[in-house]
Write a structure and sequence with these properties.
Length: about 375
């Protein structure tokens, strides 16, 4: 399975084309739109999210509620396009007008300057339109299809906020379903109601100060059989695919599994997960400090992965930069931005992880028809239970 996204932030639409989804998977636009609307929510978002109402249209690959096996084409319209028609139209505009509108002042922390140098753009709108995290809507659409595959295979996934600006949520004992419900109800998408208000206050304070804040998101995947991924090929290790996917999300700077970087400060006896066996559960672990992975493959314990998001780079309190035309320094000024997008990003991360898990399963159990995939995985589960 693979996918490609196209579309600019203030352009007409975002398009996602997914190839390799087996036939006869039940799939409705509502399954995808539900994920998209979740991504839009969360305390700290700017005015743009009041303009957009992300609903997907399935343009191909699905008929009468089931996938056909052909590429799936998904479209999300940008409602904001109506305000940007002149700036984002595909036809050439008057040269003077073009120069007048050019963005020549790169924002620190954005792709503006490096992207302009790479593609030779003197107008950095040509960079920022595509580097914008608006694209994560198209990625969530792909992830929603992946989630549907996982759901039908009895694999469930949830993403939520662990930390915002140093305010940490406590670990809580909850079923995955409860985690979904609690994070959904929280304006900051955390599971810890004690710190919820503190997180919101920190976001409000950052906004008041013209600043921005980042945080940490966590994703848990339950129901994975052991042995998915690879110890044989570096590029088929599922943990590395997940880490790569997480760091590919705009503003994400790192990923860790289980106890993560804490492992560097502990002895081996405090890190590795002892192996147990009983009739009912088959092989399982006493602990899950390694977050569900050994040797690039799942252990059968829940996958636990965290991603760190830097503070949003566009600041109302401007940082210094240089105008690429005049080479003069300036203090960037902006019109609108999110002050914290960690809650929204937890939804993005959930879908990015779902994608990597589903595509790896399909690579390991290649089937053109979804019922055959399901059967193969059921048989494999039975095989490893009796191993
Ligand atoms: C859901 C989400 C929303 C974001 N919103 C903004 C925003 O409003 N303003 C901004 O400057 N950056 C925002 N970002 C981050 C930038 O897109 C990102 O920092 C930038 O593209 C540079 O990429 P890098 O940080 O990965 O290097 C957002 C990121 C995510 C995941
Ligand atoms: C549009 C989305 O996020 C945008 C991501 C973003 C950025 O620079 O990454 C900047 C902002 O865009 P705008 O300048 O239009 O307000 C966010 O609103 C979205 O998440 O759908």
């Amino acid at each position: 399975m693979r996918y490609l996204t196209a579309g600019e932030s203030h352009g007409k639409q975002l398009t996602t084309i997914i190839e390799g989804v087996p036939s006869n998977l039940p799939l409705l636009a509502e399954d995808i739109s539900e994920s998209l609307l979740r991504r839009q929510k969360g305390h700290g978002r700017g005015r743009r999210m009041q303009i957009e109402k992300d609903l997907v249209e399935i343009k191909g690959g699905v008929r009468h509620g089931y996938t056909l096996g052909s590429p799936i084409s998904l479209v999300i319209e940008n409602d904001d396009f109506k305000h940007w028609r002149n700036i984002m139209g595909e036809h050439p505009i008057d040269e003077d007008e073009e120069v007048k509108r050019q963005i020549t002042r790169p924002r620190p922390g954005h792709a503006d300057l490096n992207g302009a140098m790479k593609y030779g753009h003197r107008d950095m709108r040509n960079v920022l339109e595509r580097s914008s995290a608006r694209e994560t809507a198209a990625r969530v659409a792909a992830g929603a299809v992946a989630k549907k595959i996982l759901h039908e295979l009895g694999i469930h996934i949830v993403g939520y906020v662990k930390e915002i600006a140093g305010i940490r949520a406590q670990d809580v004992e909850m079923s995955l379903k409860e985690k979904q419900e609690v994070s959904e109800a929280s304006p900051v998408r955390t599971l810890d109601q004690q710190v919820e208000q503190e997180m919101m206050d920190a976001i409000d304070q950052a906004k008041k100060d013209g600043d921005s804040i980042g945080g940490v998101c966590e994703v848990v995947v339950e129901g994975m059989p052991a042995g998915v991924g690879s110890y044989v090929h570096y590029d088929r290790k599922l943990d590395s695919r997940i880490a790569g996917g997480v760091v590919s999300i705009n503003a994400f700077k790192g990923a860790e599994f289980g106890i993560g970087f804490e492992a560097a400060r502990k002895n081996g006896s405090e890190v590795h997960d002892e192996i147990l066996w009983n009739e009912e559960q088959g092989y399982h672990r006493r602990t899950n400090r390694l977050g569900g992975f050994e040797g690039g493959m799942t252990t059968g314990m829940p996958i636990i992965v965290r991603g760190v998001m830097k503070p949003i780079p566009t600041l109302y309190k401007p940082l210094q930069s240089v105008d690429i035309e005049t080479k003069e320094p300036f203090q960037a000024s902006i019109e609108r931005s999110d002050s914290c997008a960690v809650p929204a990003a937890s939804v993005v991360m959930e879908h990015v992880v779902a994608w990597e898990v589903a595509r790896t399963l399909l690579e390991q159990f290649p089937h053109d028809q979804f019922p055959k995939l399901k059967k193969a995985i059921e048989e494999y589960r039975e095989e490893i239970r009796c191993f």
